[in-house]
Amino acid sequence: MTENEIRTAFIEELTKVAPDIAPEDVGDDDHIQDDLELDSMDVLNLVTALHQRLGVDIPEQDYPQIATLALATGYLVSKVAF
User: How many whole angstroms separate alpha carbon 40 and alpha carbon 48?
Assistant: First the structure.
């Protein structure tokens, strides 16, 4: 899976969890809780959706590593089995 495919998957799953967020409004450094206003349940739903879609386990201590699109892309690229 390419970096671009992972970015797209993250944005698609994020906008499913928070349908009020437009994909084009998600910036690389927008924090999912501080800027995009996801609550803790939304974050958990996002983690679950990413696990189902990408097959990546994201332990709670790693949640800060998926806090922005840029961070999440780097983290998920390193975790996705090629």
Answer: 12
Contact 79, 10 (CB under 8 A): no
pLDDT in tens, 25-58: 999 999 999 999 999 999 999 999 999 999 999 9
Q: Is the dihedral of CA 42, 45, 51, 56 positive or negative?
A: positive
Fold of 3-79: 1.10.1200
User: How many Cα atoms within 13 Å fall on the side-chain side of residue 49?
Assistant: 18
Please tell me the distance from the alpha carbon of residue 67 to that of residue 61, in angstroms, as a whole number: 12
